[in-house]
Each structure stands twice: as structure tokens, then as C-alpha cells.
Specification:
Elements: E1 11-18, E2 22-25, H1 27-30, E3 38-44, E4 49-55, H2 57-61, E5 70-72, E6 74-76, E7 79-83, H3 85-95, E8 102-108, E9 113-122
Antiparallel strand pairs: 1-2, 1-8, 2-7, 3-4, 3-5, 4-9, 6-7, 8-9
């Protein structure tokens, strides 16, 4: 059963990077999350990609996601950050992410998620 469509399109303007304790979306990628305070992370370790999906206030109020699925979005200078060192450790272990590298992504409007293909690094 397919819950959502992993798209293969890429948009070189939507970038994100990882540090030892946070995920940082560039300004263009962040614009999809400005109206949200929470997000969910979806991991596809087999295909080396993951997605960030915003959680609406309504979804949060209905307790549709456990606390382990929700990540706080932090707005800083028109960029969105997700601070969680344990999440970064998990992504390094499961997906072999490289810290301080830029990764291209695409925003899938139909599924309302930013999809990051970790095999596609930005030079």
C-alpha cells in the first residue's frame, strides 16, 4: 500500500543541510513551513531519502501524532530549523547523511511534504 508518492523531480533552489544537532532549510525551502510550528519526519532508508511534512495546529490538537513523531520548527532569519541531535544521529546511522553538505529537495504539493533525496548532493 502506498501512503504517498515519492516524487523524482528536483528543484535546485530548495536546499537543506545538517549539522551535528539540527536540520537547516534554506529560505526557499523554508517558505513552505512558515505557517506551521511542528513537522513530522518520514524516513525511506531503502531509497536513501526522507521527507519533512508540516503538522497543522488542527492535526496537533487532535493528537494525530505521538510526541516521538513531532519535531518543533524554529524560525530563524527566514530559515526553518529543526533542532534534535538524536534525530541527526539516527539519520547519520540509517541514511548515512553527511554533515555540513547541502542536499537538493522538492516540495510535493499533493502530499504537502518536502522530499530530500540524500543521493543527490548540491556541489
Amino acid at each position: 500500500m502506498v501512503l504517498f508518492d515519492w516524487t523524482n523531480e528536483n528543484n535546485d533552489d530548495l536546499l537543506l543541510s545538517f549539522s551535528k544537532d539540527e536540520i537547516l532549510l534554506n529560505e526557499k525551502a523554508s517558505k513552505y513551513f512558515f505557517n506551521y510550528k511542528w513537522a513530522m519526519i518520514l524516513i525511506d532508508d531503502h531509497n536513501q531519502r526522507f521527507a519533512i511534512s508540516p503538522i497543522s495546529k488542527n492535526q496537533k490538537d487532535l493528537n494525530l501524532f505521538s510526541n516521538r513523531q513531532k519535531y518543533k520548527l524554529i524560525l530563524s532569519k527566514n530559515k526553518i530549523k529543526i533542532k534534535d541531535s538524536k534525530l541527526i544521529e539516527q539519520l547519520q546511522h540509517d541514511l548515512n547523511i553527511v554533515l555540513d553538505e547541502n542536499y537538493s529537495s522538492v516540495f510535493n504539493e499533493m502530499d504537502n511534504m518536502l522530499i530530500i533525496d540524500l543521493k543527490r548532493k548540491e556541489e
